[in-house]
Amino acid sequence: MSETPDQTQQIIEDDPIAVRRAKREALIAAGKDPYGHAFKYSHHLAELNERYADLEDGASTEDEVQVAGRVMAKRDQGKLAFLELRDSSGDMQLFCRINALGEEAYRQLKDLDVGDWIGVRGTMMRTKRGQLSVAVASFELLSKSLRPLPEKFHGLADKETRYRQRYVDLVMNPEVKQVFEKRFKIVAAIRRYMEEQGFYEVETPFLHPILGGANAKPFVTHFNALDRDYYLRIATELPLKRLLVGGFEKVFEIGRQFRNEGMDPYHNPEFTTMEAYQAFSDLEGMMELTQGYIQAAAMAACGTLQITYQGQEVDLSGEWPRKSMIELASAGAGEDVSFARTRDELAAILEKNGGHADSAWGKGKLIAEIFEAVAEEKLIQPTFVIDHPLEVSPLAKKKAGDPNLTERFELFICGHEYANAFGELNDPVDQAERFRAQVEAKDMGDDEAMGYDEDYVRALEYGMPPAGGVGVGIDRLVMLLADAPSIRDVLLFPHMRDEQHAPARAGSMSSNGPLDCSIPHMGDETPAGGRERAAEAVADAAASGDAAAPAAFDFSKVVIEPLFEEQVDFETFSKSDFRAVKVKECVAVPKSKKLLKFTLDDGTGADRIILSGIHAYYEPEDLVGKTLVAITNLPPRKMMGIDSCGMIISAVHEEEGEERLNLLMVDGRIPAGAKLY
Description:
The protein is an alpha+beta fold. It folds into three domains: 14-141, CATH 2.40.50.140; 178-320 and 380-487, Bira Bifunctional Protein, Domain 2 (BirA Bifunctional Protein, domain 2, 2-Layer Sandwich), CATH 3.30.930.10; 556-673, CATH 2.40.50.140. It is built from 18 helices and 29 strands. The strands form seven sheets. Strands 6, 10, 11, 14, 15, 16, 17, 18 and 19 form a nine-stranded mixed beta sheet that branches. Strands 1-2-3-5-4 form a five-stranded mixed β-barrel. A hairpin with a 2-residue loop joins β12 and β13 (312-315). α8 (174-196) crosses α16, α11 (325-333) packs across α13 (363-374) and α14 (428-443) packs antiparallel against α15. The two termini are 48 Å apart. InterPro entries: Aa-tRNA-synt_II, aa-tRNA-synth_II, aa-tRNA-synth_II/BPL/LPL, Lys-tRNA-ligase_II, Lys-tRNA-ligase_II_N, Lys-tRNA-synth_II_C, Met-tRNA-synth_bsu_C, NA-bd_OB-fold. Keywords: Aminoacyl-tRNA synthetase, ATP-binding, Cytoplasm, Ligase, Magnesium, Metal-binding, Nucleotide-binding, Protein biosynthesis, RNA-binding, tRNA-binding. Its cofactor is Mg(2+). It comes from Rubneribacter badeniensis.
C-alpha cells in the first residue's frame, strides 16, 4: 500500500529531523548552500552588551554591526520576529521587521530553526521594554542544524548524555564552558609559574617498553615496526630524571598519562599531570614549588586563595603544615601505628578500621593503608603528609636516620591527594635492589608493580645529582578550583561505555511473576572480576512499554551454582521483604574499589541507603533511574563507616572461569515500594 501525499506530510511533520532535512534539500534545490562560507563579524555579543549598556529604552542608533552565532530561540509576532542569538561570549536579541528585511528575506528568516548558525548585519537599538537588540538589516545562513536541541538538558538523569554529547552540553549549559575556561587558565598559570622559576618544558615518549614511574595497571599496545608490545605511559618520571643525568637542571612536562584502572568521581584512566624535577633540590624545595604553582593557579582561576569546594571552606594562603603519615595514622586510629608494632598488630588495626590486610603486605604497606582508612578524609585544609614507608615509595630516597621511611610527601586537600613528591633516589645500587623487589612483587601477583628498568639504572650509574621531584594531577586540581564534584565535569570528552548495550545474560523478573534466577549473591560480598557490564536492553524496553526479545546467547559457557539442597520453610522465606526500588543516586564509595552507594526510593518517602560491591560490573551513573529489586528488612550493616540498610538482588553465574553478575532490573512502570511475591 503506497502512502498518499497527506500521509507523507504527516510523517515529516511528526519527525523534526525529517522536517529540517527537507528544508536542507529545498535550499540545495534552490541553489543555496545550507552550510555557508566565512563571515567576518565586527564584534562579539558581550562587547556590544558592554558598549551599549547605557543606551536608553526605545533608542535607536545608526551604528552598524556584524555578528554571528547560533539561534537559541524564536518568537514570531506577525510582521515582527525576535530571535535569541548566542556566540562564544554571550547572548543578544535580534529585532527583525518585515519592512526592514523585505517579504522574501523575512519568510526565509521565519523558516530558520533553533540551532541554526547565522551571520547578521544590522544596527544597535534598545526596545521600549529595555532589551538591547540588533535591528536586523540582512542575514545569511551559515550552517543548517538538522537535529533539534533538547528543551531541557539539566538534572542528574541527563548526566550521561551530557558527558557523551559534550558539544550539546556546551550549547545548552553555558556555565559548563566556564569550567573549561578555568581549566585553560589553571594550566596556563602553572606553565607560566614554572617558566618563571627557570624550568624548561620538555616532551617525553608516550610509548614505553618497560612499565615504570608508578604502581598502576597499564594499557598495552603493539608496536608493529619493532614487533613487540609497548605500554602507554603511566608516568613521566623516569624519562625526566634521565634528563637530570644529562645535565638539565630544571625540567617539567604537562601531559597525558594512562592507567588501565577503574573510573570514579576522582579517577579517569586517561588523565593529565604536571611532573617537575629539579637538580640540587630536596623535599623542602618541592613543597615551596608546589605551594607556589597551586596558589598561582588559584589566583588565575578564582582571583582569591579562599575557595569553597563542595560546601567546604578551604584556605590556600599562608604556609601549609607538614605532618608525618605515622603521626596522622596513630591519631586517626586512636593507638600507636608504627614500625614498633608487629605485623599482625598492624593488620588487626587495619581490619578494625574497615580495611583488608593482604598477606603479601609488610609493615610499611599496612601503615599506609591504615593512614588511608583513618586519616585521609579528615585533611580538609592543605597539608603535606611526609615520611612515607619505604615499601610504598620505591623511587624515593631513604630518610636519613630511619631506613623504614623515605623523603616523600603527598599533598592532601579536602580529603584527596593533589600532589606527590620525592627526594629523588639517585643511588643506582639501591635503585636496582628496589626494582628487583618490584619484580618479585609482580611475580607474586601484583599486576601494578613496576618492571626492572635496566637502562634507568645504567643512567643513574653515570651519576644523577641530588634532586627533588613532584607530580600534580591537573584534572583533580581543576575540580578543586572549579568546585566540580566529578572528574568527568572537567574533562571535555570523558570516556564512556558504548551506547549499545549487550542483551541480558542472567535471570530476570516479569512484572507479574516470581523471581526467575539463581540464588541471589550478597551484593556487598561479590568478588571483583573483570569489568563486565550487565546488559539492560530487556529492562529498558520494558520501561518504555515495548516488547523486546533478548538476542541469542551461548549458554554452553555458563556455569550455574548448584541449587541448595537444604530446604527452608515457607514461613521463614516469607519474612524477607522484597521491594521494587528506584535508584535516585549512585556513587562510588571513597577509598573502596568495589563498593557503590545507592540512594533509593523505596516508596516510604525517606531515602534508603544500600552499599553493594558491584563496581567491577557497573559504573554508578549508568544505574541512576533504574528500577531494581532489594530486600528491605535486613538489619543495618556498617560498611566503610556507612550504614547499609538492605541488599540489592543480583543474579550470578560463572563464565569461562570468571564470576559474572547482573543486577535484576525490572519494568520501570512498577512503582517504588511495590512488594514482590
